[in-house]
Design a protein that fits this description.
Elements: E1 12-14, H1 19-32, H2 40-50, E2 55-60, E3 65-71, E4 79-82, H3 91-105, E5 110-115, H4 120-125, E6 129-130, E7 138-143, E8 155-165, E9 178-187, E10 190-200, E11 209-215, E12 218-224, E13 233-235, E14 238-244, H5 261-265, E15 271-276, E16 283-290, E17 293-298, E18 310-312, H6 315-326
Antiparallel strand pairs: 1-2, 2-3, 3-4, 5-7, 6-7, 8-9, 8-11, 9-10, 10-14, 11-12, 13-14, 15-16, 15-18, 16-17
Helix pairs in contact: 1-2
Length: about 325
Amino acid sequence: MEFTNITLDEYIRPATDADIPKIWAWLKQQRRSGVEDSLMSGFEQYVLKYGTRDMLVFVDKRSDEHVAYQCGDLLKPGLLEVRTDVRRRGIAKALVEHRMAEAAAAGEDILRIQCVPSSIPFWKSMGFTILPGNQDELTAFRYMERKLPQPKNGRPVQVSIEWFSWERLWNPSIKPTQVDMIGGVVVGCNVFLARRALFAHALKEPGDMIVRICVDGVEWYREFVGHRPLGVQDCANGWYLDGVKFPPRLPWAWTVDQINPMAIRTEAADSTAYDCEPDGDHFDAKASVSGDSGSLSSNFPSNWLTCNDVNVGSAVGAEALCDAVEG
């Protein structure tokens, strides 16, 4: 039985009830032959529980032989097995790549599987990271890169995204679990990332996580992920960000070089106040323009400032404040 890499995907299709006996036949034969890494028991349990849901089969169209299957779509623990006599021909790789394409089309970029020690070399070759744990059921995950469109009229920036365990709240010596450095551009109040930022639940510490976001070295935000800060979104196996929205935690002061007086003068306004009321406290920021110069002052404290509700008095204020943050 010969397969070519060019046409491997043509042999893959969703499983039907008629496929189960044919797969079961060679699984029993492998068991009788003493194949140690057969997943016969797992296959039986999966079929009894789910039937053919989320199952792919690899079928030779010429002989109608069913030589491989995959269950679980790589977004949850599942099964992947190739008949012993046709292994090392790219069949497992083709099945995994088929699932990766499905996940990408569904907007899912964090894959998660369980594997046995004998399959670790294969999963590593497919880009998965193996986590330490129970040697009988090792967990592995993979990030798939998703490039994002970039506005052409933005200012280029570097964005640092750090993920911490919740102990960082009172212990500054806690190191980040993961750090991403991603390019992007600032347009108005938004940072558009060049690629999707990902964090896998498999890396999550007990309790909530803290995310810290810096733009060109300036901290914009630091908050529990459970509060869904900025642009953090849920996916099947973790969290992701495609961009950073207007920062609820603001730098405590700006200089004249960091504000664009033209943004204020556009609306023929001499001054605009921004009222932020975090946790019941009241803080003011005021921007003013005189001729070609501008200034922005505030009584924001220099420590962390959590503005859960930022009330901007007018569109002028929103634009000026965004320009102040953008620089």
